[in-house]
Amino acid sequence: MASVRVQQLIKKYDQVVAVKGMDLSVEDGEFMVFLGPSGCGKTTTLRCIAGLELPDGGTIKIGEEEVTHKQPAERDIAFVFQSFSLYPHMTVRENLSFPLRAVKTAQSVIDERVMMAARMLHITDKLDRKPTQLSGGEQQRVTIGRAIVRRPQVFLMDEPLSALDAKLRTEMRAEIKKLQTDLGATTIYVTHDQLEAMSMGDRIAIMYGGLLQQAGTPMEVYDNPRNLFVAGFIGSPAMNFVPCTRSGDSLSLSPAEGAAAASLGLDSDGKGRFATTPTGDTSLVLGVRPEDVAFVEAGTPGSLPVRVEVVELLGSENIINVGLAGHIVKVRTTPTFRPTLGQTLHARINQSRSHLFNKQTELNINAER
Ligand code: ADP
Ligand code: MG
């Protein structure tokens, strides 16, 4: 196994600059997820690491070796694509053997590695079938098996579960994670699905506009998002954002059109956390996750009156949408809490877990320091 280091990677397609100077390190044995919306440069970065695209700038190292301009075959990597790409006329066994036959491996080694991969992927009873006789999930297992048999230094996977239905995707998520742990294999896994990223990654690299926005463990990026993009992209439902300015020991929440302004007094948590926040004109954005708002008794210090606008009953939890200074704020509650529409409730924001962003720079004020 090996580490992967990408420095100042640039890739252009004619006018489009798909990757604009990406810096990334993946440690030996690490499961790294590239996460970001469609078009942000995930596939392009992965294809440069694989050697399927040649970069216009920057360097790529696998282990101690610089591979920036090397052929894919010289890189000791295995690529699992979104589509299953199996040979339809070959059996599962032949499909699994193919990458090893291609490099003239001894038959006994082929048999041993094919059996090992089949066991890990629970397809030992499917070895003599053709791909068309398999379900989508089984086909994708075979595709992953073809990557495993080669025992490469690095696995690269580009949205390998996106063609599967939701239930199977959730199952395979856990299987791939377990497989990677068992093999101890350095893996880069591309997805646009933040739940997939959170549940699988040792670390997540969040990309947007051809640039790395933040890399960190799932909890780091969830609890300390560096900027507004990361804050809004990670978490479901997304973090609530309310524009505001600071005046002394309170935040003046800027009202949406036609709504009344509101003022949120900073409690001792907020005063400590936002100690360096500029007062006065600087436009800020208050960021609060749905689980960091609680409904409390009227008159509780620090609570604000809010109006119930929409109630989403999700089975395991409810999402109550309330109006605050004309902005919709989503609040996560237990499934038994069912307020009526139009009702006034009192909401208290957990300031020790909230964020303030500079509207111009989009940076988290706490992360800026
Ligand atoms: P992602 O995988 O994150 O969805 P991609 O890396 O595929 O994003 O694409 C990044 C940008 O590069 C997009 O704007 C896309 O349209 C463009 N792009 C990707 N591949 C090509 C190509 N072969 N030719 C021209 N533009 C491309
Ligand atoms: Mg892609």
Automatic annotation (TrEMBL):
GO terms for molecular function: ABC-type transporter activity; ATP binding; ATP hydrolysis activity. GO terms for cellular component: ATP-binding cassette (ABC) transporter complex, substrate-binding subunit-containing. Residues 4-234 form the ABC transporter domain. It comes from the Bacteria. One of its GO terms (biological process) is carbohydrate transport. Pfam families: ABC_tran, TOBE_2. The keyword Transport applies. Keywords: ATP-binding, Cell membrane, Membrane, Nucleotide-binding, Sugar transport, Translocase, Transport. InterPro entries: AAA+_ATPase, ABC_transporter-like_ATP-bd, ABC_transporter-like_CS, ABC_transpr_MalK-like, ABC_transpr_MalK/UgpC-like, Mo/tungstate-bd_C_term_dom, NA-bd_OB-fold, P-loop_NTPase. This is Multiple sugar transport system ATP-binding protein. It comes from Armatimonas rosea.
